[in-house]
Amino acid sequence: MEWRISPSPVDYQDALAVMEARSAAIAGGADPELVWLLEHPPLYTCGTSAREGGLIDPRFPVFATGRGGQFTYHGPGQRVVYLMLDLKRRQPDVRAYVAGLEELIIRTLAAFNVRGERREDRVGVWVARPDKGEGYEDKIAAIGVRLKRWVSTHGIAINVEPELSHFSGIVPCGIADPRYGVTSLVDLGLPVTMHDVDVALRAAFEDVFGSLEPALPEAAAD
Fold it and tell me: Is 46 an annotated catalytic residue?
């Protein structure tokens, strides 16, 4: 298992190329699994379920991607976590994997005393905002995955301190209800750094997914 943190923003197309190559190598038994923590420059992506009208203002580059879901935003201050895991060896169950990602986010947020919650009718992890009014909730983390040969790509994005106004260029994940907005750890009043989140993510990952060393090919005998 490799745990990688990129110190500077990564171009989205470069990230896609890395995920594609690494996932193929994992499926072929040539490379270990990879959890990659990074940030992107400001951009929008659209998943396989993206609907017309989901893009309101294309002020940033827009990328079509093979992950599930609709439109989302990535940018500085958001911790993106791309997970290339061998689910065939772990648990070949898509629903269980997505539930595991939700739990990874919820446990990470709990490290900062934030209660993240699942919603049956909405993807991602949410926090209640009674300060805004009854029934108001904000999304603090997004989930979008793709599986090929039972190796995962894409993953999650947790809002640490992104520019929240950048989300107004899209209908985030297709949810236009005014009661449902977007928030971040810093927006909630928490002076959390990216490093703090990375430490919490690592601990939560070990709790939820554990570690599994892939069965790499044995070296050929002399």
Answer: no
Q: How far is the C-alpha of 171 from the C-alpha of 126, rounded, in Å? A: 16
Helix/strand/coil for 37: strand
The alpha carbon torsion through 84, 156, 196, 11 (nearest 10 deg) reads: 80
Environment class of residue 85 by beta-carbon count within 10 Å: exposed (0-12), middle (13-18) or buried (19+)?
buried
pLDDT digits (tens, 9 = 90+) for 154-203: 999 999 999 999 999 998 766 778 899 999 999 999 999 999 999 999 99
Catalytic residue, candidates 37, 127, 173, 185: 173
As a whole number of angstroms, the distance between CA 107 and CA 121 comes to 21
Sequence-ordered list of residues with C-beta below 8 angstroms from that of 159, at least 6 positions apart, any chain: 77, 78, 140, 141, 182, 183, 184, 185, 187
Count other Cβ atoms within 10 Å, centred on residue 35: 19
53 CB neighbour count, 10 Å cutoff: 11
Give φ, ψ of 172 to 5 degrees. -55, 120
